[in-house]
Amino acid sequence: MAEDFQVLVVDDDPLMGEVLQTRLEQWGYGVFCANSTKEALKLLQQEAVQLILTDVVMPDSSGLELLRLLLAVDGQRRVILMTGHGTVDMAVEAMKEGARDFITKPLDWDALRVTLRDLQQEIRSRREARKRHSEMSSGSLGFHCMIGDCRPMREVYEIVRRVADTDASVLITGESGTGKELVAAAIHENSGRAKSPFVPLNVAAIPGELMESELFGHEKGAFTGAVDQKPGCFEMAHEGTLFLDEIGEMPLALQPKLLRVLEDGKVRRVGGKKEFAFDVRVVAATNRDPAQAVQEGVLRQDLFYRLNVFHVELPPLRDRGDDLLLLSEHFLTLFNRKHGARVEGLRDATVEEMRKYTWPGNVRELRNALERAVVLAEKGWIEPGHLPAPVRAPEMRGHIVLPVGTPMEDAEKEVILRTYEETGGNKSQTARKLGLDVKTVRAKLKSYGVD
Fold it and tell me: FRET label pair with 267: which of 15, 192, 347, 375, CA 20 to 30 Å apart?
């Protein structure tokens, strides 16, 4: 339906204005007519108009001058210029000035109707985006720093509210990139420990030989390179929350020591003799199936039971329905501000491509894809071509094509980087998929200049 789309026709030829009005009304649009720039500006002060369709040659000014006046007042005005004797140079100038289209007389009615439909859909998309942005700003479509309104996410919010005020341990599970650290931070910020430290530690990012020192601290001279005394994460998180991300990647030999510290509430630095009592709530996370990790022998069963007092499972992005649009709107606003861009939103065709994609890297991958798209687009709308190739080329997802004769070093680099991208930037998962040690993956990525 077009009744919410008002068009102002500006033409000093009464017959042309009448023909346009009749045709536009037949298509269901509301139409106002003006035969001069002065009359058009007066009408625009009185009526809500979404589109101005104006002749280039007017008795009191040109259509280009009217275009400049209109956009000076409202840069979002949609103006289409018409002329019976247009040139390429004139069309180029009109588009540079901000015209949405430049059409010649006699008019191609089919093309004009398609243009109007596209503009109408653009307005509706912008209106929906503003509504989503307003709802997100009010906090009605999320919780804490988490955004989403699907049933699985509402269930997550409810669990977080219930466990936040307790001191019970929490185990958060979910695929890489689903926002496990955000959930941990939400638990902390809504608890009685909110004014004390929140200390996150990514277990997979710490070399195994340094993990004990990171967790428990060390005394000066405890080992080669220990030139100073260092408190561990438990000491730093005293009276607050310690978040142990990727707990399934912790060296098996260290897990009994962690369990003992959790049970005793005391920690001894590496190389030290004195024990320190601590008051810390522990929240852990893993992108593995914890039961399977226990069965495979990479996670001790007793440690699993100690951490899994409450369980929060995060849904993958592909199962979150319209949360994809809510998150996209949030990221577009964020990256417009960050990069000084003026992106309006996502084209319908772009949304369609995004809905087809399974997003193996989840929200983290979506964030990266939209930052790339905003930088490429700069303004206007995100087109399908602004999306990364895996999102817009279903037949190529999960595949790598290399020219014959590609050096092995370059082939290895491409395989590692693409797998790293597919896992949403998770080093331990990349290592598992490639059958490599996580140290090897970490070293390779560092040599490629990837943090």
Answer: 192
Q: What is the pTM of this model?
A: 0.70
- Where helices occur in 55-105 by DSSP H, the ranges are 63-73, 88-97
Give the tens place of pLDDT for each residue, 268-280.
888 888 888 999 9
- The average confidence (pLDDT) of the chain is 86
Q: Can you tell me the distance from the alpha carbon of 234 to that of 260, in angstroms, rounded to the nearest whole number?
A: 13
Buried-state track 160-170, b at ≥16 Cβ within 10 A, e below 16? beebbeeeebb
Cα distances (angstroms) measured from residue 39 to each of 20, 65, 70:
17, 14, 13
Neighbours of 396 (CB within 10 A): 11
Q: Under a CB-based contact definition with an 8 Å cutoff, are residues 193 and 241 in contact?
A: yes
Q: Is the pLDDT at 134 greater than 90, yes or no?
A: no
User: At which residue do the structure tokens 């269930």 appear?
Assistant: 155
Burial class (CB in 10 A: 0-12, 13-18, 19+), 405: exposed
Q: What is the pLDDT of residues 360-380, one digit of tens each?
A: 999 999 999 999 999 998 988
Q: How confident is the model at residue 397 (pLDDT cuts 50, 70, 90)?
A: low
Residue with tokens 């023909």, as numbered in its chain: 19
Tell me how far apart the alpha carbons of residues 313 and 329 are, in angstroms, rounded to a whole number. Answer: 24
Q: Which amino acid is at 276?
A: F
pLDDT per residue over 138-151, tens digit each? 555 678 889 999 99
- Strand 342-346 vs strand 379-382: parallel, antiparallel, or unpaired? parallel
How far apart, in whole angstroms, are the C-alpha atoms of residue 33 and residue 10?
A: 6
Q: Which residues fall within 8 angstroms of residue 171, CB to CB, at 6 or more apart?
A: 247, 283, 284, 285, 286, 290, 304, 307, 308, 309, 310, 311, 312
Whether cis (ω within 30° of 0) applies to the bond prior to 207 is no
- Print burial letters for 112-132: b (CB count within 10 Å at least 16), e (below 16): beebbeebbebbebeeebeeb
Using the structure block, give the residue that is written with the tokens 């540079």.
Answer: 96
Say if residues 313 and 173 touch (Cβ distance below 8 Å).
yes
